[in-house]
Amino acid sequence: MEKKPEFHGSDLEKIAEYYQIPPEEIIKFGANVNPLGISEKVKEQLSANLDIISNYPDRSYTSLKRTISEYCGVSPSCIAVGNGSTELISLLIKQRQSKKALVLGPTYSEYEHELHLTGGEIYEYNLKECEDFCLNTRDFLDSIESGTDLIILCNPNNPTSSAIRQVELKKLLSEAKKLNIFVMIDETYIEFVPDISEITAVPLTAQYDNLIVIRGVSKFFAAPGLRFGYGITCSREFLQFLLIHQNPWSLNSIGAFAGELMLKDHEYIQKTRQLICQERDRLFHLLQNMSGVKVYKPYGNFILVRLMKTGITSSDLFEAAIKEKMMIRDCSSFQALEGEYIRFCIMLPEDNDRLMRCLAAQLGT
Ligand SMILES: Cc1ncc(COP(=O)(O)O)c(C=O)c1O
Fold first, then answer.
1. 111-143 burial by CB neighbour count: b if 16+ within 10 A, else e?
2. Ligand 1: does its nearest atom lie under 6 Å from the Cβ of 218?
3. How far apart are CA 252 and CA 275, in angstroms?
4. What is the mean pLDDT of residues 23-42?
5. Residue 235 CB less than 6 A away from ligand 1
6. 202 and 96 belong to one structural domain
7. Is any atom of ligand 1 closer than 6 Å to the C-beta of 87?
């Protein structure tokens, strides 16, 4: 075998080729996607309505925005839709033209990637391992440097799976408002949290026009290929910017159609939440009792684990798991995670058990 290349979390094809495993046989513990797959109801409706490809989507996405408005409890006039949350993150960062942005880390790398393109200064405030990656709001607010005009955070956060409660976000937003700072909150993983109303910032968008909340269907609704994301904000400036700078029909007609069905599929939503909440509690408990690891209370559909046994690296664990056709995330590429960390998402119970057995065998417990 040639020298092992560096893999990114979504490099399934590269990994399959390198380890000579058919990609469909790999259990994707690194993708953070709902293991139930797309809802059967949505699949049936999609296949019966494929002719919609022959139409342009409604340019204003009126029906889709109405559905999002009901799903989130906000006015349709505060909703933007886009090609995955990625497009809206990118457009927001372009619109802000930040001179100095603060990113709450360690986190998803795409924010800094986009910020680099606009050329402003970027600095990080990192969640602390000794505080189990839970935010100390006062300390965070004290760290805001003068001249900061944008704060970006992910809630629940990838990769720590920690979450910030709405009461804390409110303090953060009030302070940001006083300092004339815009805040972007990525809620890609919000539907997985035990109590959404305790964590989401969506209700705060009515009160704070310096806030945008960005969400999508890639993870919870198992539809990363659909590329449907949405944003909620009362910022007239941003909504106006989209009218000029966003490509028309940036979300295709299949995405708009399926997106609506997904958000209305209460049975699927309930089934997913039940599975993830149950498995998350079970795995968290198992890991707390496993020697050689430290685990942090997870709020998303994934768990961050620190390897505490001397001589065992995240790369060793990745290697051991992939040899058993399980692909986890080796977190060594996340900046500001010092030590050996792995992240894996919650899959079906029998797959989760297999991963736990692999972990225990590697750690010799
Ligand atoms: C925190 C976070 N935000 C956004 C995305 C991308 O989402 P989308 O597929 O909606 O563009 C990801 C994908 O891994 C993510 O982890």
1. bbebbeebebebebbbbebeeebbbebeebeee
2. yes
3. 31
4. 97
5. no
6. yes
7. no
Q: Using a 6 Å cutoff on CB, does residue 166 contact ligand 1? A: no
Tell me how many degrees the CA angle 61-273-44 measures, rounded to the nearest 5: 50
Q: What is the CATH number of the domain that holds 329?
A: 3.90.1150.10
Distance 339 CA to ligand 1 centre (A): 25
Listed in order, strand segments (DSSP E) in 219-301 are: 228-233, 293-295
Q: Quick check: is 4 in a domain? A: no
Q: Is residue 229 part of a domain?
A: yes
Please tell me if the CB atom of residue 229 comes closer than 6 angstroms to any atom of ligand 1.
yes
Residue 272: closest CA among 348, 197, 335? 348
Could you tell me if 68 and 25 lie in one domain?
no
Q: Which domain holds residue 294?
A: 12-30+267-363
Q: Whose CA is nearest to atom 7 of ligand 1?
A: 85
CA-nearest of 117, 196, 108 to 152 is: 108
Considering the domain architecture, whether residues 255 and 228 belong to the same structural domain is answered as yes
CB of 315 within 6 A of ligand 1: the answer is no
Tens of pLDDT along 158-213? 999 999 999 999 999 999 999 999 999 999 999 999 999 999 999 999 999 999 99
Ligand 1 atom with the smallest distance to the CA of 32 is: 14
Gap from CA of 346 to ligand 1 centroid (Å): 17
Amino acid in the structure at residue 330:
D
Question: What letter represents residue 169's amino acid?
Answer: L
- For atom 3 of ligand 1, the residue with the nearest CA is 188
pLDDT above 90 (res 12): no
Structural domains in the chain (count): 2
Residue with tokens 């496993």: 290
- Ligand 1, closest atom to CA 218? 9
| CB-CB contact of 16 with 22 (8 Å) | yes
Mean pLDDT of the chain: 96
